[in-house]
């Protein structure tokens, strides 16, 4: 962890880590009960978009007034990549390999986010990044060999789903930091625009592809995904606020949020014992990935 991290950035980053450490657990329960990845992604984005819309209306101000077109475009693209595509991948990964393994793999995100932040935003990075990359690779290797996760079994290729989520989330966070640095918007407006773009993208896909199966899942799964959407709304707003602060560099915020697997592993051990096996290899791999993520930010 970067010792120069301000208490506010620390709070706004670790809060989402705890929330996003818990949501994969309840989502896994719903996915195992007949829920589907596309349904999950759609319900979550519908719920958080609704909550952000209500929050914007409660301010008593007309939102997005004076918002530059290029800034709006940045958050639209971030919503498509970092939200719609990323969540589809993470829900699919959660379904295939289990919450503990999937969450740990997604925490490789700081590797990609930091590389993009250095090249695209010219953010400073230390030589410890090299060590972080090596630790991340070892952690992912340990996870791929660990005999744990979903009790129905999985193979190494299934890790490509959460890894794809890590890449898309990384792209999304770098774009968000860039858009917030452009100015002309608040964190609430930015996250609302981000999620609205994701809603249009996912909704458009459902209509064009004729995926009416999103309406055929058991009723209780919609309630679980709605709870996840509410928690995600809080976590996203906190993350956007952290990224909007001068000291909220991607190379600091992203790795802090990437500690989520530590919480997921604990929650999975106590709440998903009938669906997942949390082995020593899973714990070791999760710890290595998080340590690597922290080193990347040094």
TrEMBL record:
The chain crosses the membrane at residues 6-26, 38-58, 64-85, 97-121, 127-146, 158-178, 190-210, 222-245, 251-271, 278-297. Keywords: Membrane, Transmembrane, Transmembrane helix. The keyword Lipid biosynthesis does not apply. Residues 10-144, 160-297 form the EamA domain. The keyword Transmembrane applies. It comes from the Archaea. Pfam families: EamA. GO terms for cellular component: membrane. This is EamA domain-containing protein.
């Amino acid at each position: 962890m970067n010792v120069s991290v301000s208490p506010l950035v620390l709070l706004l980053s670790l809060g989402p880590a705890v929330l996003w450490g818990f949501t994969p657990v309840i989502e896994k329960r719903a996915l195992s009960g007949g829920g589907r990845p596309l349904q999950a992604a759609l319900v979550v984005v519908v719920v958080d978009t609704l909550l952000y819309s209500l929050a914007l209306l409660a301010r008593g101000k007309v939102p997005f007034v004076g918002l530059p077109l290029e800034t709006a475009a940045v958050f639209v693209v971030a919503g498509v990549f970092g939200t719609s595509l990323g969540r589809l991948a993470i829900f699919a990964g959660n379904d295939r390999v289990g919450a503990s393994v999937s969450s740990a793999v997604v925490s490789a995100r700081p590797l990609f986010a930091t590389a993009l932040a250095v090249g695209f935003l010219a953010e400073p990075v230390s030589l410890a990044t090299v060590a972080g990359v090596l630790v991340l690779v070892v952690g992912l290797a340990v996870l791929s060999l660990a005999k744990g996760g979903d009790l129905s079994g999985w193979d190494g290729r299934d890790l490509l789903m959460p890894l794809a989520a890590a890449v898309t989330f990384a792209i999304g966070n770098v774009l968000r930091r860039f858009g917030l640095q452009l100015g002309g918007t608040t964190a609430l407006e930015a996250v609302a625009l981000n999620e609205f773009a994701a809603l249009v993208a996912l909704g458009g896909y459902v209509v064009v592809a004729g995926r009416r199966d999103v309406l055929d899942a058991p009723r209780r799964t919609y309630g679980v995904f709605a709870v996840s959407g509410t928690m995600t709304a809080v976590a996203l707003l906190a993350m956007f606020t952290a990224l909007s602060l001068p000291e909220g560099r991607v190379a600091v915020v992203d790795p802090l949020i990437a500690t989520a697997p530590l919480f997921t592993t604990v929650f999975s051990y106590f709440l998903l014992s009938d669906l997942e096996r949390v082995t020593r290899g899973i714990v070791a791999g999760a710890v290595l990935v998080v340590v690597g993520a922290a080193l990347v930010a040094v």
